[in-house]
Amino acid sequence: MLLTAVIKDLHYTLVKGDLHIEVNSIAYDSREVVENGVFVAITGFSVDGHRYIDRAIEQGAAAIIVEKDIHIDGEVTVLKVPDTREALAQVAANFYHNPTEQMNLIGITGTNGKTSTTYFLKSIFEETGNSIGIIGTIGTVIGDKVIKNKNTTPESLNLQQTFADMVDSDMKHCVMEVSSHALNLNRVAHARFNTGIFTNLTPDHLELHNTMAEYFEAKAKLFDMTTDYNIINADDEYGRILINRLQGRESRLLTYGIEHEADINASDIHYFADHTVYTVHTPKGSIEIKVNLPGAIYVYNSLAAIATAYCNQFSLQQIAHGIAAVEGIKGRLEVVYQDEDTKIIVDFAHTEDSLEKALTTIRPFAKGRIILVFGVYAADGESGREKRKAMAEVAAKFADFSVVTSDNPKEQDNNLIIREIVEGIEAHNGNYEAIVDRRDAIAFAIEISRKDDVILIAGKGHETSQIVGKTEIPFNEAEIVREIKGNER
Ligand SMILES: CC(=O)N[C@H]1[C@@H](OP(=O)(O)OP(=O)(O)OC[C@H]2O[C@@H](n3ccc(=O)[nH]c3=O)[C@H](O)[C@@H]2O)O[C@H](CO)[C@@H](O)[C@@H]1O[C@H](C)C(=O)N[C@@H](C)C(=O)N[C@H](CCC(=O)O)C(=O)O
Ligand SMILES: Nc1ncnc2c1ncn2[C@@H]1O[C@H](COP(=O)(O)OP(=O)(O)OP(=O)(O)O)[C@@H](O)[C@H]1O
C-alpha cells in the first residue's frame, strides 16, 4: 500500500523523506516491525516508544510517526503528529480499509454489566441466524475462534485488524466492550459505532482516572462517536446526566430501567435462586422475559440488550427467545459446586458495587450463612486504599464471614493489601480470617462451611490465572473447588 494512502486524513508535518513509498504493515512495538513497515512511536506508561526508533529502523521500518522533536538518522520517512495514539488509530483504519463502515458496531461502556450484556446480545443475534463478533474481557470471538486479549479493549491497530477479520468472515455485526481507559487513549478513535450503550458508573479504576467526574467524562466520549442509537440506563445517576446531555443529538436516545420512567422498562419481576422472570414493555408492546441468571443486575443487563435488539428491528418474540437461550455466563454467579449441604458460587465481582450486588442477590435464597472469599486486586496509591476500605465495608455488612485473601497482587505489597482489608472489616465489626494463599483460603471456607451455607468466591470469575509479581500462575477456581470437594470424600 502507498504511504500516502496509509496516512490519508492524518494531520502531520513531514520532517523528512519521501511520502510516495510502498509500505506493507504498521507496528507500535519495535519488536514487531518488518522490512518496509511503518512504526508509530507511542509514549507508554512504563517506557517511551520513541526510545525504540533506532531498533525499528534496524528491523527495516520505512516510515516513522512521532509526536516528539527527535533527531532520526538514516534513510527513512519521518512524520510528526500531535498525538501518536490518535495517529495510530487513523493509519490503522486506513490500512484495513475502514472496516467499521462495513459493519454494524455496538459499543458497551459502564463499570459493570458489559460482558453479560454482550452475551445476551450475541444470543439474540445468533438465535435469529445473524452472526456477530465479540470483543471484550473474555476475549475476541469470531465464529468458533476465541482469541485471548491483553486488554478488554485492545489497542487501535489490533482492533482495526480484528474488525477487518470480522468483515472477511462475513460478520455484519460486532458487539464490543469499550473501557474508559481505551476511550482516553484513543484506542477506539476512527471506529464508527452505530450504537452506544451505557450500563452504570460506580467507583473503579480511580487509579487511572483520579475522580468519578473524570471517569464519567472518559465513558461519555463513546456517545460523541455514535451514529444511530444511544441506549442509556435511566436508573443510574450518571446515566441520567448522560440522558440530559444527549437530548437533541442526531442519534436516537433510548432509555431503559426499572425505577425511573424509561422507553424500555420492566415490571412484575419475580426473582428465583437461579433465574428471574419479568415483563418488558417497549413502544411496540410487552412480552414476558426469562433470564437464567439471578438478581436485579441481570434484569438491567438484559434490558440493555433488549433495547439494543429492539433498535435493530428484532421482534419481541425473537428477543425473548434469545435472552432465554443464555444458560449462564462463565464466572457470573456461576454455581461451580452444589450438593444437598453446600452451594459454591464463583463471581467476577471486583468492585464495591458489584460485590454488594452479588451478596444481596444471593442473600434471599441462602438458608444458612454466606461465607465470602475475596481479595482486592492490586491498585496502588490512595485510590487503592479507598477501594480496600470500601470492599471491606461491603464484606462486613453483607457477608456473615469473610476469608480475606489475594487477588492478582502483581508487584504490590500483598501483606499490606490484606492488612488494610482486615482493618476495614474490623472497623465494621465483621467476622473474618485472613489467609494469603487463595487456594488455602478456598479450602478453609469449604472446611468451615456448615449445612445450608453458601460460599461466594468473588473477584476472578472466568479468569484462569493469578498474577503474582510478574508471573501469571494458572488458577482455575471451578477446578480447585472440585478438587478440594473430591479430596473430602
Ligand atoms: C497502563 C496501560 O494502559 N498500559 C497499556 C500500555 O502499556 P504501556 O504504556 O505500559 O507500554 P510500554 O511497555 O510503556 O510501552 C510503550 C510503547 O513502547 C513500545 N515498545 C516497548 C518495548 C520495546 O522493546 N519496543 C517498543 O516499541 C510498546 O509497544 C508501546 O507502544 O499499552 C499497551 C499496548 O496497548 C497495553 O497493553 C497496556 O495495557 C496494560 C496491559 C494494562 O493493564 N492496561 C489496563 C490498565 C487497561 O487498559 N485496562 C482497560 C480495562 C479497564 C476496565 O476493566 O474497564 C482495558 O481496556 O483493558
Ligand atoms: N448491572 C450491574 N450492576 C452492578 N454489578 C453488576 C452488573 N452486572 C454485573 N455486575 C457484577 O459485576 C461483575 C462483572 O460483570 P460483567 O463482567 O458483566 O461486567 P464488565 O462491565 O464486563 O466488567 P469488567 O470491565 O470489569 O470486565 C459480575 O460478576 C457481577 O458481580
Report on the structure:
It is built from 16 helices and 24 strands. It is α/β, with parallel strands linked by helices and 489 residues long. The chain folds into 3 domains: 3-95, Udp-n-acetylmuramoylalanyl-d-glutamate--2,6- Diaminopimelate Ligase, Chain: A, domain 1, CATH 3.40.1390.10; 99-324, UDP-N-acetylmuramoyl-L-alanine:D-glutamate ligase (3-Layer(aba) Sandwich), CATH 3.40.1190.10; 334-488, Mur ligase, C-terminal domain (Protein-Tyrosine Phosphatase, Chain A, Alpha-Beta Complex). It has an 11-stranded mixed beta sheet with strand order 9-8-7-10-6-11-12-13-14-15-16, sandwiched between helices. Helix 3 packs parallel to helix 5 (156-168), helix 10 runs antiparallel to helix 11 and helix 13 packs across helix 14. It starts with a helix and ends with a helix. Bound molecules: ligand UAG and adenosine-5'-triphosphate.
Summarize the structure.
The protein is α/β, with parallel strands linked by helices. Helices cover 34% and strands 24% of the residues. Strand 14 and strand 15 form a beta hairpin.
CATH homologous superfamily of the largest domain - what is it?
A: Mur-like, catalytic domain
Specify the helix fraction band.
25-40%
The parts where pLDDT drops under 50 for at least 5 residues are none
- Count of discrete structural domains: 3
Radius of gyration over alpha carbons?
24 Å
DSSP strand tally:
24
Strand order of the largest sheet: 9-8-7-10-6-11-12-13-14-15-16
CATH architecture grouping of the largest domain: 3-Layer(aba) Sandwich
Mean pLDDT over the residues? 94
Number of helices: 16
What's the CATH first level of the largest domain? Alpha Beta
Percent of residues in beta strands: 15-25%
CATH topology of the largest domain: UDP-N-acetylmuramoyl-L-alanine:D-glutamate ligase
Global outline: globular
**Helix/strand/pairing class, anyone?**
alpha/beta
Bound chemical compounds: ligand UAG, adenosine-5'-triphosphate
Q: Outline the biggest β-sheet.
A: 11 strands, mixed
Distance between the termini: 64 Å
